[in-house]
Every structure is written in structure tokens, then in C-alpha cells.
Amino acid sequence: MNDSTLIANDAQQIVQHHLDQLGQPSEHILSTEEKQQKFEQIATELKKQNAVLVAHYYCHPDIQELAEWTGGCISDSLEMARYGRDHEASTLVVAGVKFMGETAKILSPEKTILMPTLEATCSLDLGCPVDEFTTFCDAHPDHTVVVYANTSAAVKARADWVVTSSCAVEIIEHLDSLGEKIIWAPDQHLGGYIKKKTGADMLLWQGSCIVHEEFRARGIARMKALYPDAAVLVHPESPESVVAIADAVGSTSQLIKAAQTLPHKQMIVATDRGIFYKMQQAAPDKELIEAPTAGEGASCRSCAHCPWMAMNELDAILHVLQYRDQEIFVEEKLRQRAKVPLDRMLNFTSQLKR
Ligand code: SF4
Fold first, then answer.
1. pTM attached to this predicted model
2. Number of other residues whose CB lies within 10 A of the CB of residue 334
3. Do domains 124-209+341-352 and 212-290 have the same CATH topology?
4. How far is the centre of ligand 1, averaged over its atoms, from the C-alpha of 97 (Å)?
5. Is the pLDDT of residue 297 over 50?
6. Contact at 8 Å (CB) between 133 and 146?
7. pLDDT (tens digit per residue) in 144-167
8. Between the N and C ends of the chain, which has fewer C-beta atoms within 10 Å?
9. CATH hierarchy code of domain 124-209+341-352
């Protein structure tokens, strides 16, 4: 057990405490007319306030549909950051979890960043408190600090690089080619996957995503027995044994692409089920099957759907536009420090695109 494991045990308790505080998501299913009425009310407010809705793939399909319908964006956290930064709107409504709103503010301080709720967080962010993480980094001063986007602004400010799952492998390969030793935080599974793939010298923080760590290789193998011709698509925040049986491993955007390009007609998908909305649009002729989790999807709060992402509801979006009371602020000095590693990632990935 290393020092980051000891800290992670404390962090797990923090995550559990947060989960215990969560209320139940709204069970009210809107009729088509009710939904359309809400869409129109929200669209009117967005227009009036020169605002745009930026939503993550893990949000409820209604929120993703709303983002499309109002001319906003649905994407992974890397593209959300870029889209928000480059959009001309003066207000961004970020439907996702808190670190996404903070990232938007870090990159666009002149914009007002609203979120449907500031309570929506992430087990990776919670599991990497800045004081403990700083102590860990200070104990390894010869290491380059690389943090996943799923971290607080304060943790980003302590880092040399920020990465998302769609560019992490390339950035670590680049640092490894320069002979750098790396501290990776917070997701242990994604870190382990990249370490194995690149052979880089990496010290791993022991955080995890409560959604992806619930996937189990045994359950997926049983599912595969029922659908022997299906491809298995896995997000690398899942445990190593799950990644090992995947036909495609990647970020949300990369998995959507895999669903389109793999020849299989059926896909067993091991990531948050919110992704099905865009994946089905991208691959309309494919059958998408939810990968089973440890709780078999029965009653577990974090089984294949993030409880914090679920807090992004239509009513909450309308409310925040009307009252503007869920605004993200990042202290200016901290923002400037956190922007440095974020800009490094955005510049690096822009060059990859060329
Ligand atoms: S799905 Fe996992 S990584 Fe994504 S916000 Fe939820 S807890 Fe965090």
C-alpha cells in the first residue's frame, strides 16, 4: 500500500458521504406536450440571455435533445471545454458536473457560467482533495504532474498537464518520449490502462469513478454468451479485467465512433447509459445493450448511470436561467494557474487534429 492508497481510503469515505446525501432523482416522466412546453420556455430564456446550453453525453436524453434543439452542444469534457471557450454567447449553461463548469470558467472568465445545480459533483474530484494531493506531489518533486479533467480547479492549479480520456494516451506518450516520470491522478483504472499501453513511468493516485468501477468482467462474459456476435465497448475508467475483454476501449467520443465503425450489429456498452442517445443516432442500425454491473442494474445508485449527472433536470435548467443562482466562480489567481495546464492540453490536441 503506498501513500496515495492510504489517502484514497479517506477519500472513499468522502464519496460515500456525498452519495448518502443525494435525494432520489425525479421520477416524473413528462408527456410529449409537457416536454415541448419546457423546451420552449428554456429556449426563450436562452435567447433572451444570449446563453447556450453545453451538455455532456452522460446527461439524460431529454437534456441532450434540448441542447441539440436549441443549437447548443453535446460532447465529451474536452469538446465541452473547447466549445464553451470559442462560443460567442455571454452565458454558458453547463449541464454536467461541477468540474466541467469550473473548466468553462477557467477558460472563459468573461462569461457567466451557470449550472443546473452546483451539487452535481464527481467521485474522482471528491477523491482527490487538494491538500493531500499537494503533499503527494511534493513528496515526488522529480515527477511531472498530470491530472484528469475530473478534478477541482485547485488540483488543476497544482498540475503541469490536464488531460481527458480522449487525449490522455497521446499526452502521456509525448511525456514518456521526453523521458519524464509522471504522477497521474485521480483515476487508478484509467492510469493503469495508460501505464500498460505506453510503458510510461507513472505513479498512480487511487481514485475511481463510482459508475465505471461497477462493471464486472464476469457479468459481461455472461452477457456475451447471450449475444455471442456482439462487440464489447469499454470506457477505460472500468477495472482492468473489464478492459481486457473489450473489442474497443476509449473515451465517450471514441466509443461512439467505434459503434459506427465496427462491423458488429450488436454492442455491449460498458459506460454510463446516457451515451446511448448519441451512440444510437450515430449508429442507427446497431443494437445497443447495457453492460451489467455488480448490482446487475437492479437498485444500485451508481449502476451504469452517474447519480450526479442525473441531477441535471429540465426544471433545474429553467430555474437557473430564471434566477441565475447556481453560478460558478473561480478565484482569479487560482484560475490563472489552472489555465496553464488546461491550455497545454488544448494546444496539444489542436496540433493532433492538424
Ligand atoms: S460518471 Fe464517474 S467520472 Fe463521470 S462524473 Fe460521474 S462519477 Fe465522475
1. 0.92
2. 17
3. yes
4. 8
5. no
6. no
7. 999 999 999 999 999 999 999 999
8. C
9. 3.40.50.10800
Q: Cα(177) to centroid of ligand 1, in Å?
A: 30
- Report whether residue 124 contacts ligand 1, using a CB cutoff of 6 Å: yes
Measured from the Cβ of residue 183, the count of other Cβ atoms closer than 10 Å reads 24
We find that the CATH architecture of domain 18-123+308-333 is 3-Layer(aba) Sandwich (3.40)
Interatomic CA distance for residues 32 and 88, integer angstroms: 31
DSSP β-bridge partners for residue 113: 92
* Residue 5 CB neighbours (<10 A): 12
Return the domain boundaries, the chain.
18-123+308-333, 124-209+341-352, 212-290
Range 212-290 has CATH code 3.40.50.10800:
yes
Q: Does ligand 1 have an atom closer than 6 angstroms to the CB of 309?
A: yes
Q: What is the pLDDT of residue 29?
A: 79
Percent of the chain with pLDDT over 70: 91
pLDDT grade, residue 17 (50/70/90)? confident
**Is the Cβ–Cβ distance between 114 and 320 less than 8 Å?**
yes
- Which residue's CA is the nearest one to ligand 1's atom 6? 306
Greatest Cα-to-Cα distance within the chain, rounded to the nearest angstrom: 60
In this prediction, residue 300 carries a pLDDT of 54
Distance 140 CA to ligand 1 centre (A): 28
β partners of residue 54: 73, 94
